[in-house]
Amino acid sequence: MKKERWDEENLEQLLKQAPKVTDHRTKDEIFNRLKDEGAFSEEPPQIQQPTQKGIRWAPLLVSIASLFIIVLIGAQFLGNDQSISMENTFDMATTESEESAKMSRAGDATSKSESATISNFSMDTQGQQTLIYESQLEGVTLFKIGLAGDDAESVPVSILIPNEVVVDKLGTDKPTALELYKTFSPLLDEQMLGFNEYHPLKGELREEGNKLIHTLPEDHGYDTSSATLSNYFGSLVDTFGNSYEEVQIEDANGKIAYFDHVGEMGQSIPLKSEQTQYNYFMYQMRDGAVYLSPNFRMTFPNVTDAINNMTTEANDIYRTVILPGVSLTVEDKGDIVTVTFDQALDLEQYDPAQVMRMIEGLLLTASSFDKQIKFEQIVQENWSGFDFTKPLEKPVSGNILFYNF
């Protein structure tokens, strides 16, 4: 049968073309004919009953097939609206099933490590602050670390550890950054936080004044590609950038390390210099968590260039934090950078999470140059803890995670 549908007119014309069948015999003639031929004299056939009870599959399959055909025909007559409704119902059921699976996995992760309390910052965060300021460090120790993201790039995160926990594990409330790292990085469940397992770093780390020495084993794997090298360098900066000036890389014999993609590491990796002056973009992990992170470690000679570069979309991985349709002017005045919005900016007209990311991204960028920001042309004088009538406090770190060791 052809694919085109037969309407009532087609069927009627087809039936009219069929030959007419007539029979002029009476009912008595037909009955007598059947009686003479012995149609009523034979014994009715005996049906043998089965000895075992079971499912009569043939009738059942016929019934199912019939029901399927009826539903299919009904769907054709009901039209696309009913089909869409059925598809939506299926999608809803699938979504509910997926959500149940996610909840189950989340429960498994929680039971796996009940001692850890984690807070990732997703797209629907309602104006929640993610930066850490000097005024928040009373009674706690700041633990910074660069975790391996989904795209082979280090993501800087921060954890505040109560001083009593630090004293309990280290015997002092003023450990060096390296002592802090050696003690707590092995205890960090990176996968549960949504990152790849990366720490503690392979080899041996030791301090020499304001410099770190990293002695690598032969099979360290940090130079297998440009991406692994970028992640390694970025992780060193994100973890130790606030505490040391540079990192010297050695091989297992104590000689200058050789990396396949860059050659001999004759020069140390700077942790505080123009090579670590970044601007910050939005980076979203595959699990939906959002962080503020440098855009592939792009550096800038001055804060004006860094902020102006933030007004354009960078790439598919790092997205600008500047609100859509918003333009601004930057003026560097020594320790304070003035950011003036070209038109009066009403923060209540935007999603609070997007507003927070813009403000914090700009603050982190200025902090990378050791500067504060004063905002101009914002309708609100106060918003979510920020006082825009004066320069905002310079953050010491970003992307806070809550984790109980």
Explain what this protein looks like in three dimensions.
- The protein is an alpha+beta fold and 405 residues long.
- Among the domains are: 137 residues, no CATH class; 114 residues, no CATH class.
- It contains nine helices and 18 strands.
- The protein has a four-stranded mixed sheet, with helices on one face. A three-stranded antiparallel sheet has the order 11-10-12. A three-stranded mixed sheet has the order 13-14-15, covered by helices on one side.
Walk me through the topology.
Layout: H1 8-17, H2 27-36, H3 57-78, H4 80-112, E1 132-133, E2 140-148, E3 154-162, H5 163-170, H6 177-184, E4 204-208, E5 211-215, H7 226-240, E6 246-250, E7 258-259, E8 263-264, E9 269-270, E10 278-284, E11 290-299, H8 303-309, E12 318-319, E13 328-333, E14 336-345, H9 352-368, E15 372-378, E16 382-383, E17 386-387, E18 395-397
Parallel strand pairs: 5-6, 14-15
Antiparallel strand pairs: 1-18, 2-3, 4-5, 6-9, 7-8, 10-11, 10-12, 13-14, 16-17
What is the string of SSEs from the N terminus onward? HHHHEEEHHEEHEEEEEEHEEEHEEEE
Looking across the biggest beta sheet, what order are the strands in? 4-5-6-9
Structural class estimated from helices and strands: alpha+beta
Q: How far apart, in Å, are the first and last alpha carbons? A: 71 Å
Computed Rg? 37 Å
Outline: extended
Please tally the β strands and state the result: 18
- The share of residues in helices is 25-40%
Strand content: 15-25%
Low-confidence spans: pLDDT under 50, at least 5 residues? 1-6, 44-58, 70-126
For the biggest sheet, the summary is:
4 strands, mixed
